[in-house]
Amino acid sequence: MRKLRELLRLYKIGKTIFTYGLDELIPARLQVWPARWARKGIFWLKNQHPELSRGKRIRLALESLGPVFIKFGQMLSTRRDLLPPDIAEELALLQDRVPSFDGRLARKQIETSLHAKIETLFDQFDEVPLASASIAQVHTARLKTGQEIVIKVIRPDIERVITADVSLMHSMASLIARLVPERSSRLRPVEVVEEYRKTLFDELNLLREAANAIQLRRNFEGSRTLYVPEIYPSYCHENVLVMERIYGIPVSDIEALEANGTDMKLLAERGVEVFFTQVFRDSFFHADMHPGNIFVSYEHPQDPQWIGIDCGIVGTLNRDDKRYLAENFLAFFNRDYRKVAELHVESGWVPADTKVEEFESAIRTVLEPIFEKPLSEISFGHVLLNLFNTARRFNMAVQPQLVLLQKTLLYVEGVGRQLYPQLDLWKTAKPFLEDWMQQQVGYKAVINAVRENAPFWAEKLPDLPELVYDSLRQAKLHNRQLQRLYEQYSRHHKSQGQGNFLLVMGASLLLGSVLLLGMEETSWAVTGLGITLVVWLLGWSRVSAR
User: Fold this and answer.
1) Where are the transmembrane segments (predicted)?
2) Which of 259, 335, 432, 515 is 20 to 30 A from 210, comparing alpha carbons?
């Protein structure tokens, strides 16, 4: 049954592509003959929207296919350097202008989740949504205290749609893994899809989003760079999220930002700072930073502050990942390509038998041209693409735990290009990473370690004399036990030696008795056998003694 559903979903995807004429957008040189013949065979599926622009056809197709595809469109919309302007403009509408569902359904879902009538919970509720996205939509309301809020409500039946799409993606990834195992060992498609599945289903649970937002707000409490709206946990549910309403300028509205007198250069630099702070200071970063989730405060435009919402997708890194990334970034910035190559080998991301010299040369070829250029002249997306091509030559494995980080970095660059095209991403990030590395390996690391462990040692200090006394007493007892064990071993070893000697002597006496018996010296032979038996018994008793 699951396979049948996947086949039906695959057919719907193909039907959507054809009915919106997306196959016509593929350049003729890329259309291989089997695909052309297959297209002619499906003659009943024709382009039903020839009058629409290509950008609008792509946007409508992604909207009709659901949240998984809308998320993909949102990510593409931030890469205006990789897309024609008309397509980028249309895809930008996917950030917060996805067709909404009926506000009455939202009201009913809120009341069901919170077990109370809207009028009991809030002073005011607007059934017309303020914004609508792929997973949920947002309504404005007011608490009984007068606080303005927004209520985020999950789309009805959205979990079933996502489950079907992810299941299809998982089947396709498994098929690829079987058909091209040599590439799959590097690209790890099943693991990447599994990571994406986890991310999507985490986003469906608004209690998880609430916890993420509370954590992110605490991390940037009092910060001049990022503000995270307050969450009201007592009104939250798996399907409902209530938070403070914020007023800000969408980061994509360049005209409004300039009209407000915003320092665009500082704003762009702070975007980079916020990203690296989340990754390297907190190990906890907002991983869905497309323009629909980012605003800029109207206040103090010359000292601009970012406002972040929608924390459904966050990423975390362990200590090893952070250190590895920081060392790689710094090696990139310092053009130490040898170090980059060695780090990749040491981490196991490329096989241990990789020739470092060849890998170093390949990395230099990709990265050297991008330095000392403003962001307007380079594209981090193109750099990543070239690095991935290099990775194929050296069998570099994809790391699923870093996919979110890569996507977020692309978001940051895309937003930075819109705000201030001359921003030097590398120059802005380098001082931050150098300071972080000093805190990890320099004298600051020692000070931080002492500071972090000070409460623990302060708690244990009063018990230290007793712990020292117990340790010494235990050591003395252990020494006595070792001495007894040694004495027992010595006695046993001595007894074993005596026993072995007696057994050998008994064997000699037995041989002599047999010879005497052959010489017809019967009395001596019988005496020898008797002595042999006694000697053997004595020897055996000593060998078997413990």
Assistant:
1) 501-518, 524-543
2) 432
